[in-house]
Amino acid sequence: MSIVIIVLIAASFSLQNFDSVTTLENTPDIILTNVDYFERIPSDLPIVGISDAPVTIFAFNDYQCLSCKFWYEKEYPKISENLIKTNKANMVFLDAPTFGNDSILISQATFCADEQGKYSEYQKTLFSKQQEIDSWAKLQQLKDFAMDLNLNMEKFANCLDSGKYEKDVQANIDYTTSMGVEKIPLFKIINFEGKEFVLKGSIPSTLFEETVNRFQN
After folding, report:
1. CATH no. for residue 27?
2. What pTM does this model have?
């Protein structure tokens, strides 16, 4: 595994009323690159965007998290348009251990949707339906979402009912815990040179764009 030792240069950003941390002030000198992060993650997570993008945005997330929903619906579409679709960055969503066992099942459903190329669409549905759902742990609701997206229901149901990705999701949660992630949403923006920024809270898309562009200069 390649480990890169760097000196972090703190970039100053203008933030107003955001719960955020933009640099790793108390981080050890050994910083992992985005390649190293992929090697350490215990399962094959869906990657949004091209796999060899020069910058990776790791989003620590839970589908029952209201702040995550707020950020996703307000800021993610602009990040997708300006960074992911332009191949400047890709994004990986990592499960955080915030809301317990219900979230494990929900995340398994996103893996099952990814088998049919509908990861992002299913993810969008989960956030859009977040406040309408009485009990997230209901298998039928998760299957109904898949049906709405015209997925192969036999394949999706077999995947979800079998718990095919339960160990993968739990491993990702354990990994997130080992990284010290507590409050979400939290983002790590990392490039091939090992430069890293940590952003906490519902951060505006402009800050992501500025950070990615700074990495490329």
Report:
1. 3.40.30.10
2. 0.78
